[in-house]
Amino acid sequence: MTTKPVLCAFLLLCASYVCLARDVRTVAPPFPRIANCYGSGLSWQTWEQGRDYWGKLDLFIGGGYDLHYDWENERWPGALARIEENVAHLREVNPTALVLPYVDVIEGPDNPNIPQAWWDLRDGQRWSGWPGMFRIDTSLPEVLQFNLDRVRGEVLGRDCFDGVFYDCWGPDEWLVPKTAELREGDAIVMINEWNLPRAGFADLNGCLAEDELNRVVEGIVDFEEFLARYLKWSSESRKPVTTTLVCHPRNMNMDPWHWDKVPWQERRDYADSLRDSDPQMVRFGLTTTLLGDGYFGYDCANLGRGQWWWYPEFDAPLGYPKGPAERRADGLWQRQFDGGLVVVNGTLYDAEVTLDANADDISTHRVGTQFTLRSFDGRIFIPSDAAPTPGDDSPPGITAAPPTSLRTATLDDGSVVAQTPKGLELRFSPSGELRVIRHGGATVMRGGWPIAALQPFRTMEARDSRPPEVSSTPEEASLRFAGTLAGDERSVSYEETCTVQPDNRLTLAFRFTAETDLDLRMWRHYFLFPVSDYAGRRATAGTQTIVLPAELGEPELLPASQEFQIDAEGGTIRIDSSFPMSLVDHRKWGTQDYLLAGYPVSGAVKAGTAWEVAMTVEVR
Fold it and tell me: Total structural domains in the chain?
């Protein structure tokens, strides 16, 4: 077919600086290894402006030269000239730093040079998964060939680049292997599949785990399972390892469509306010990364990644590891380095750590041998000859041992825990999302909170939530939350009450009021049951009972009913709902769960409309 200018081969201007090629397989910077995702500024800052920050960075992922099917853009020659100049200086002061330009395979701007046949259409129209971008049909061989050709010539044809970063792209069977063959097989190839996939090690140096650690803290992803994937990427991928864990402050607004409408200065001010707002998330992300051989980044996620933030922990003099990470008897993980010890608490409970000799906690500068690690926290301990800090460390706040009566606690991050004497435990976010339901120390299910999405698919997020009201007596615990679900300038107010009884019963009651007119793509209340725990067990909806399949077959498992029961380890879970809920095998849609879900409202909803939802769960 006739090609547009974006397809035509062209030569960008050559810069006056030449970056010497090197053997990237020998690159092994000391730890911690810090990355910047998308905002390093190599193409728009001078060396004098960026050298103090760049000289400390170990991995540059994108950063002002991000390529979205607009390779013919007139700014690229000047941008590339500055990149080559800056990287030439960088190699002199920081020879182990790796530079990977950003290439977008799945989306492009509204660029008339992109062939019309390349757009991915829905109902005959282009569609967008990110503000300002439209999806490309990557099933077309010519699309993948175009990307390979451009990367071969315009990226890997330049010595200042060590490889390429393919955003929103997985370990496919063609583009990744073909790219891995370039530069006689020495090109670094890194992807971003949003989380860490379970394949692709032979052709890839790494993958970006984008905010997956935030989902660990939220209870969506299991820490042990995530860590196993990360350590596998560290040990089995091509060398050098470039797998990067990046996370963000837990209290930030994550709606990119909201930020797309906000002026630049307001966005910058908001980012500045977040820098020191969540030190625990910085510690947990960094120390988890140190259990493997990857890189760590911390920034503003969907607001716009790549802030030039730096923390004292990044300067910890750890050097190199003495061996792999080890799981301790108490469920914590640790790794010994030449310069100190890293300990990570990825459990749901606070823990006490006893060291053999005095050490300085690099985050708090407490010196001693006894330390308390909160749930989802980590610390770097450096040997110290200083006198121990007077007094004991703060005691653990929440433990796994069931209480003798109903117990509630508000944790440091604002989340709320409720525990019963019979081993039931509930974890709520500060806004009221029930993140996890545990029984007998094990997670049995997740969910209850609504997933609300506007057309075409804009997820509404909790905002302006009030501090939870928590009260408890021996007969009943009550947790009350209120706030707003908002997105795309449309909103719904909510009031939520959870009551918990000592006999392991809980009731979730919601009242919602539409504050604006809504056009809903989805309003789902749901519970998730992991396939690994429930395959082969019985599930009943109304009068129909099935055995849950170990292998994916037909996704529809049980019809809609207001009464549901499922066999659990050592007992039974019963759910009664004010609206019908049906069971499906959610492996069809990408997660390893059985999904029990109902849809109490949908479509067009007028401002002022109110609706109520109630679900009672009994674990016995």
Answer: 3
